[in-house]
Amino acid sequence: MARLILNSVLLAFFHFTFAQDVTTAEEASQHISISSSGTLLSNPNLTINAVNCTVIGDLSFSGGCDDAASFVSTCPAQWAPDANFSMLPVDFTENWLGIAFDDFHIHIELDVELTPENPTNEIDIHLLGDSGIDIPFSKSGPFSTTFNFDPQIHGWVNSSSPANFSYGFDFVIPDHSAIWIPVVHLDNISTFGFNDSTFTTTGMKSSNPDLQFDFSLAFRPTFSIVADFLTNILSDAITVYADTPNIGVSVSQVDNVTPSCTASDGTQKTFKNLTHVVPSITTDFDFSVAKPVEDFPFGPWNLTTNPLPTQCLAWDTSSTTLIDAASATSDARRITVVLTPLVGFTLFVFLFV
Question: Any stretches that span the bilayer, and where are they (predicted)?
Fold first, then answer.
């Protein structure tokens, strides 16, 4: 099967606020504020417009080592972790790296128009360019670390027929959520705090009554970390990414069904045809290292799937859009009703458990 890879780096449409605040000598903090609008990708097969895309929050980075595990002559006590990490129930006496999230709010909503030459189309948009941004961090003594942050929108559109639709999500990560990387025990890599994240869909909207496709959309922050105190363990960067979250949507046509898209027994309100939207949510956390010591396992980790409410949509001839079937009348497939706005679905997402 041929794959069309669509890589877009159109920084002109992104506004990024860069402000580094080193809160203490023990961690580096980076405020992130990214907003985008307009066309993110355009070619004869696929056009993607940002309806409203924002990434706002604070990232904190830190790391440390002990005398025995490092080539560094000493790891002084003041290298102990600061507030965002000291609360974690972990062992700080060996080589470690940490990434913490505070006030992190992600909103991704896209308009997609597809005229496919290939049935499988990848979306790969780097919000800050292919290289992301480097955030240097130094502690006292022989300790120098560079964190690279590369936020991405990643997804797929799989369809052999034209499709136009908008879809997205709103995702909030709780304060002090963290990724903990014990470098010499990578099988114990852990995440904390993400279980109270909230996720809300925007709902599917379209002016096409014949949609049939599969779609996925993820916010994918990628971190590459180079630390000089790890040069005896790793030959290059350790790279961590998290699809937080990855929303999958299956859209199909169903016939002779109720407003909830279940088969009609003839005694219920019945539609000749509806568009059935079945979403699902997953999270994926993975990492790679350039020179692991023997028996360093590596990802994926902690894949969790949570059900989301489906949508059953009817065609409204007056507005030429799909609307919620529960508010529609059922005399034919293309029916005349008053447009009712879609509402999103909110739930608590259990991540990384």
Answer: 335-352
Q: Is the pTM of this model over 0.70?
A: yes
CA distances from 285 to 58, 64, 193, 249, 288 (A): 20, 22, 14, 20, 11
Tokens of 294: 């023997």
Q: Are strands 190-192 and 133-139 parallel, antiparallel or unpaired?
A: unpaired
- pLDDT exceeds 80 at position 68: no
What pLDDT digit, counting tens, does each position of 175-223 carry? 988 888 887 777 778 888 887 888 888 889 999 999 999 999 999 998 8
CA distances for 264 relative to 115, 166, 261, 329, angstroms: 34, 29, 9, 15
Q: Give the mean model confidence (pLDDT) for residues 60-89.
A: 62
Which are the contacts of 287, defined by CB distance < 8 A and separation ≥ 6?
A: 181, 186, 189, 238, 239, 240, 241, 298, 299
Cα–Cα nearest to 92, from 80, 74, 75, 77? 80
Cα separation, 284 vs 218, whole angstroms = 10
Return d(Cα 75, Cα 90) in angstroms, integer.
Answer: 18
Q: How far is CA 93 from the centre of its chain?
A: 32
Amino acid (one-letter) located at 138 = S
pLDDT digits (tens, 9 = 90+) for 9-53: 233 334 444 343 333 446 778 899 999 888 988 888 899 999 989
Q: Is 225 left (phi over 0), alpha (psi -120 to 50) or beta?
A: beta
DSSP state, residue 136: E
- Give residue-wise pLDDT tens across range 91-148: 777 777 888 999 999 999 999 999 988 888 989 899 888 888 888 776 555 456 778 8
How many Cα atoms sit within 13 Å of 189 on the Cβ side?
25
Amino acid at 144: S
Nearest one of 267, 74, 226, 243 to 151, comparing CA atoms: 243
